[in-house]
Structure formats: C-alpha cells, structure tokens
Amino acid sequence: MSQADTTGSGTQPSVIECRGLTKRFGGTTALADVSVEFRTSEVHSIVGENGAGKSTLGKVIAGVHQPDEGVVTIDGATASLRTPKHALGHGITMVAQELSLVPGRSVLDNVFLGTEDTRAGFVDRRASRRRFDALVERYDMAIDPHARVGDLSVAEQQRVEILRALARSARFIIMDEPTARLSHHEALALADNVTELTAAGVGIIYVSHFLDEVLRISDAITVMRNGEVVRTAPASVETKDSLIEGVAGRTLDATFPARIRPPADAEVVLDVQGLGRTGAFENVSFQIRAGEIVTLAGLVGAGRTEVARAVFGADAPTTGSMQLDGRPFAPSSPQAAIRAGIGMIPESRRSQGLFFRRNVRENVTVSHLPQFSQAGVLRRRDEQLAADAAATDVELRGATTNSLMDELSGGNQQKTLFARWMMSPPRLLIADEPTRGVDVGAKRAIYEMLTRLAASGMGVLVVSSELEEVLGLAHRVLVMRAGTVVGALDGETAQEHDVMRLAFGAAEEVA
Question: Which residues pair with 427 in a beta bridge?
Fold first, then answer.
C-alpha cells in the first residue's frame, strides 16, 4: 500500500513537527526558533508579511533549504530533508508560485515525468493512462490528459502540478501563494480541490496573503512575524481583524483609506472611444476624470490587461480612438505614452517592470534619465538625491536605494515601481494588479498611495482580480467580459454580487 493509500485508510494522521528551526541567509535571520506541527487531513495555513519567514519555513520542510538549527520529525522520527527528492521520499512536495512544468509536453507526460510506467524498456502509455484516470477519479480533478500544458490556463497548470504531486504518493503538499495568479472563480475551484485532497487524507500546508481565503478553507492557522511564530490557533477562533493585527503587529483601523470623490465637473484626463484590438477586446469606451480611481474588473481573459497595455502604448489598437487632456492620443510605444504623461505599474513586476540585477536607485530613475543627464553624462548625485526622495515618499522600509532588487520583499519591489512614477508624477497612472504578491501591511500602504495620488488630481486606472480591492478603491467600477465592457457601477454602492453577475453574464445593466 502506498503512502497516499495509507493516509486515507482511517489510520492515525501523519504529523510533521518542526522543532526550534532557525535559518539564516548571511546576516538576515529568516527563521528564529520556529516550532509548529502539521497533520494530514488538515489545511494548515501560514500567514505573515513579506519577509515573515512563511515561504522559508515551507522550503525547509520541502527540502529546498536546510535549517542552521533545529530538526523536522515525521511521525516522531527525525527526517533527513537535504533535498526536495529526500522530502518526496517522506511524502512531502511543494507547489511553488512559479510552476515547474514542461510546456511543450502533454498533461499525462507532466504528471508522470520521471515516474513513467515502462514495459520492455518503453513507456507503457496505457498503464500511465490507467494511473491517471484513477488519480482524477479519486481526487475529483478532471483535466484532459492529452492537452499541451503550455496551452492551459494558470489554474489548469496548477492542477497538473497537484496531480504530479499525488502521483508521487504525497502525504503533504505545500502550496505557496497558490491563488496569487488566479481569478476569483478559479480560486474558489482550487478551494474545492483542497477540500477533496484533505478528505482523501492529504495534508495541505497553505501559504497565502489572502486572509478571507485562509479563513474559509483552513483548519489551523499559524501567524508569523519577523521570522518567528506569533501563534498557532484553530481557524474557528480567528477573524480577519485578529489575523491582520497578528501579522502586522498593530491594529489597522481599516483596510482601505477613505475615498475622496472628485468634483462632478472635474476635467476628463482620458477619453477612450470604441477602442479595439483584434482577438483581444473590442468597442471599449470609458472616461477617467482628474482625481478619479476607476477599476477594471472581470474574469481572467476578459481583456482588462490588454486594454491597459493599449492605453500605455505597449500594444497598438486596431480600432477606436483616445484623447488625453482633450488632445488626440495614439502612443506608438510606452516611451511615447510616458512622454505624454502616462505611467504604468505592470501586471508582472518580475518580467515586465523591474531589473532584478540592478539596485533600487537604477530601477527608480530608469524612465527619467534625461532629467539627470547633461551632454550625455549622468549627474549621479542628482540622480541619487531624487531616488532617495522617491523611496522616502513611498515608505520603502528595511532597504535603501543601493539595495539590489532581488534582495527586497515583494512589497518593497512593488513600492519601487510606484517610486518610479513619484519622480515625475503622470497625469494618468495605470496600476495592473498593484498588490499581487504583497503582504497586508504593504497592501494598505499601496492603497494609501493610490488614494493620495488621485486626491492630488491624477487620474488612476486600476486592474484587479481581487473583488474586495476593486470595490474598496474605486469611484467607478467597469466590468469586462469577453473583451468588452458590459457594465459600469458606482464604487461606493456596488456589491460583490453585482460585479460577479456582470462578469459571468448574468446581468447586462449599466449603472
């Protein structure tokens, strides 16, 4: 009987016990005397700010990192977790934020990669298919085995990763920010998958910033701060407020700052009419006024990011027109959009926004170097002073402008992108998923920045997959579905169900 079979057979649950774990990276202590237990058939979530140590703890258990002090035991016996392969030998595996699949191969190939059934030296695909069907049936995670992984959505690729873990008889699956790149309904579907896994005896160690999600699916929750365990408690005794206070070490009066509604006659900053891009979106029209925050909501694939990229000049529209401050606006490139007075926080800071081998100063000033150049020579002192001022403006904490981007937390990386636009504030700021992968404290700081920028007279366009964020920030909510705007809602009166009905096509009303 396999390990996975044993967990579902009614025997005592397996237990991972971490005792006094300490992990240092140079002069930084990532884990400090951490002790916590995890059990099969449970969802045990770990929450904390960026840099709190939650991902490091998961990686120690998964064999990615080795502790400097302390031990990990499994069912009372000390476990050797020197590599991920050793951890897998104990039934432990990890589904990381960055998925590690082979995009050119099929789902079936990826699930059994390295553990293929063979006959006479050849892969026995019939046997593999039987194993695959048994896995899908047991854990209720249906997916086409012949589909090319590179053609799947992020949510489907994540399902493949989970199936691959289960195919290797995993008793514990560590999920590190599993819904960071998923839409609302995809996150709910993953929660159903997690329920199926725990019902079958698998233990889930769940690392997440999304507190509502954590409270909804968890049996136990561990709160971490500054590399230490603040507490571990049943999820039933925690609330969102108690978790925020535990994570931040202080009470946050409200998740979102108060909205300041712009005057009814505020000038129109951006006017978009009938904008379209073949295969991406069509007939999109909206306005953004000075001092107004407009959010674009909708399911993944609705065309929100594509519209934002067209406004920023990253992709050329094929139909329609735009005006910026009453003048025709058709940027041929992001550089042209920046010169016209538009800034953008891109969806992926790693692939689209930051230079990770450069320091904060260079990342902040990269779009503004002509301001600090004379006859082709960069005035380093002026550049440094401006970068320092911008970093102070966004409250960069625990880092300096000489820190390398790779050394910063997700929150500080995102703040660096905001600092880039503080140097020369644009007329319109586009923020695509502005709080993705950042902790609750950094989220609040980003919300305050967006509100402050709007109050200064800037137009702000926010693309977000978090409904709470969409409704908490916006003066107006534009809902997209299948590449077009299907509704507009007042941000102060709209409810989650109003947005979801439009996003799913259950309503067509425009408020």
Answer: none
Dihedral-angle region of residue 457 (phi above 0 means left; psi in -120 to 50 means alpha; beta otherwise): left
Question: Binning pLDDT at 50, 70 and 90, where does residue 50 land?
Answer: low
Q: Is 458 helix (H, G, I), strand (E, B) or coil?
A: coil
Q: What is the pLDDT of residues 389-425, one digit of tens each?
A: 888 888 887 778 888 888 777 788 888 888 888 888 8
Q: Tokens 């202590």 sit at which residue?
A: 29
Amino acid identity for residue 2 in this structure: S
The closest alpha carbon to 395, from 409, 412, 410, belongs to 412
Query: What is the chain's mean pLDDT, rounded?
Result: 86
Return d(Cα 301, Cα 41) in angstroms, integer: 34
> What integer is the mean pLDDT of 223-247?
90
Measured N-to-C along each axis, helices 125-139 and 154-167 cross at an angle, to the nearest 10 degrees, of: 110
Task: Determine contact, residues 473/443, Cβ cutoff 8 Å.
Answer: no
User: For residues 293 and 305, what is the distance between their CA atoms, to the nearest angstrom?
Assistant: 16
Within 10 angstroms of residue 40's Cβ, the number of other Cβ atoms is 25
Percentage of the chain beyond pLDDT 70 is 94
Would you say 473 and 444 are in contact if contact means Cβ atoms under 8 Å apart?
A: no
Q: Which residue did the predictor score with more confidence, 510 or 470?
A: 470
Number of Cβ within a 10 Å radius of residue 108? 22
Closest CA to 470 of 412, 419, 431: 431
In the Cβ-directed half-sphere of 75, how many Cα atoms lie within 13 Å? 12
* Rounded-to-10 torsion of CA 194, 195, 199, 200: -30
Burial class of 335 by CB neighbour count within 10 A (0 to 12, 13 to 18, 19+) = exposed
